[in-house]
Amino acid sequence: MNLFAYTRAASIAEAVTAAAEPGAAYLAAGTNLLDLMKGGIATPSRLVDITRLPGLDAVEPQPDGSTRIGALVRNSDLARNAHVAKTYPMVAEALLAGASAQLRNAATTAGNLLQRTRCAYFYDPASPCNKREPGAGCQAIGGATRIHAVLGWSEHCIATHPSDLCVPLAALGAQVEIAEAGGRRTVPIGDFHRLPSDHPERETVLEPGALVTAVILPPEAAAFSGHARYLKVRDRTSYAFATVSAAAALTLENGRIGAARLALGGVALKPWRVAEAEDALTGANPDAEAFSKAAAALVAGAKPSGPENAFKIELARRTVVRALTLAQAGTPARMPALPASPFSHAAGALHA
Amino acid sequence: MSIPLRLTVNGERRDLVLEDPRVTLLDALRERLHLTGSKKGCDRGQCGACTVLVDGRRINACLALAVSLDGASVETVEGLANGDALHPVQAAFIAHDGFQCGFCTPGQIMSAVGLIREMREAGESVGDAADVERVREGMSGNLCRCGAYAGITEAVVAAARAEAQAGEKAA
Lengths: 352, 171
Fold this sequence. Notes:
Chain B: One of its GO terms (molecular function) is 2 iron, 2 sulfur cluster binding. Chain B: InterPro entries: 2Fe-2S-bd (IPR002888), 2Fe-2S-bd_dom_sf (IPR036884), 2Fe-2S_ferredoxin-like_sf (IPR036010), 2Fe-2S_ferredoxin-type (IPR001041), 2Fe2S_fd_BS (IPR006058), Aldehyde_Oxdr_Iron-Sulfur (IPR052914), Beta-grasp_dom_sf (IPR012675). Chain B: Pfam families: Fer2, Fer2_2. Chain B: This is Xanthine dehydrogenase YagT iron-sulfur-binding subunit. The complex is a heterodimer. Chain A is an alpha+beta fold. Among the domains of chain A are: about 5-50, Uridine Diphospho-n-acetylenolpyruvylglucosamine Reductase, domain 2 (2-Layer Sandwich); about 225-330, Enolase-like, domain 1 (2-Layer Sandwich), CATH 3.30.390.50. In chain A, about 25% of the residues lie in helices and about 20% in strands. Chain A has helices at about 10-20, 35-40, 75-80, 80-85, 90-95, 100-105, 110-115, 165-170, 190, 275-280, 290-300, 310-330, and strands spanning about 5-10, 25, 45-50, 60, 65-70, 175-180, 185-190, 210-215, 230-235, 245-255, 255-265. In chain A, the strands form 3 sheets. Chain A has a 5-stranded antiparallel beta sheet with strand order 4-5-8-6-7. Chain A has a 3-stranded parallel beta sheet with strand order 1-3-2, with helices on one face. In chain A, strands 9-10-11 form a 3-stranded antiparallel beta sheet. Chain A is globular and about 60 Å long. Chain B is an alpha+beta fold. Chain B has 2 domains: about 5-80, Ubiquitin-like (UB roll); about 90-170, [2Fe-2S]-binding domain (DNA polymerase, domain 1, Orthogonal Bundle), CATH 1.10.150. Chain B is about 35% helix and about 15% strand. Chain B contains 5 helices and 5 strands. Chain B has helices at about 25-30, 90-95, 105-120, 130-140, 150-170, and strands at about 5-10, 10-20, 50-55, 55-60, 75. In chain B, β3 and β4 (about 55-60) form a beta hairpin. In chain B, α2 crosses α5 and α3 packs parallel to α5. Chain B is globular. The interface of A and B includes residues 6, 8, 38, 76 and 348 of A.
């Protein structure tokens, strides 16, 4: 790990100023950053510790029906928050399907959005990587690509975003609140992460020094609490990143679908949400035919980035259909003991 | 560079001066305070051998910067037993053969202590078959290269049930 200067920020303004310095990085729990620093992948010259910033660790339901989730709210606290578990059950299910209990107890909401890809070539300083060094090339292309993208990738980068949490947040149209030198602004989460295009080193819309202060779930997101599931397909039953995951949420009116929300994880460098897929469900009978149409619309244009990941397109389609089928059946009263697992049995923690 | 750091470790206040901000909580415990129960397995947050409780919650000590935890309360495996009387989770690991080589065991035990607290705080019951699944998931951040998982799961389920029964009697 490189030597770095350490600053403990006392206010958001102080943090934004300190982190605007070239080479500076924010430190919250550090569960991803320290791992990257130990591997020599991240080499910040200064860490700006934001863990003592006041007012960023609360989940606050707002009078307009939205919910403000502070940037420093820990994954486990967010998942167990009674309001979140009841109102946005697929957010809780996705959180509890991610990482290990130790990591969830430390990792923060904003840190989850900003975690880096798990591409093995990105993680290996000896491999050329356009994310680490623009123009260096991409060793993943033509390499071992089982976990790589089938949507939205470019000839410069085929990595995926590993987050579980971001998938239901994208489906529910969350807003990301950002503090920067000029003040505060909010960005829809769908615009927050960038696809690789010609500049895979630019991962988000954040400018140097910009600080994520909150994630806001809009009022309409609460309508889906009765029929919302997150389904995660992975190589082992727990403590593994998604091969493919899906967040599916419905409202049902007189036996038909009123509104639908759908997003895929593990397939692109951001959660994949397509308006046509949700439109295909609106007003439809909630049956296998409608679910298959929506799944096809969601993966439209998918293309393997390597021979090893062609299977993910069909897997994504089936995962969407299954997640929609589970959502239609209704949010379970209790979180499964193995959250988001296709193998889970009933029981587990109450959804509150 | 010298950075003052105050921790409460197993109930005792410990004052340290770090010469370098790179010191992780795990290195502070092992190298500075000579509490070598917490193990450095992978040092990358993948194996759980370094699991300790910080302010009552289990985390990977290898992925936390000590300087960031100034003022925190830390519980390690060294603080569990009361004299020669083992903590119930320690006793359950012996009764159920929850280890072989023992390297991962302090992390397993601290993780189990943390899990049982989490289940109690969440009001989760312990008493049916799904508990085993819940415990397996809850302990999945702790790897055991010897493969003593069957015994570990039995030990954690037994300790959780014993605590739940004791809680019922107390209530």
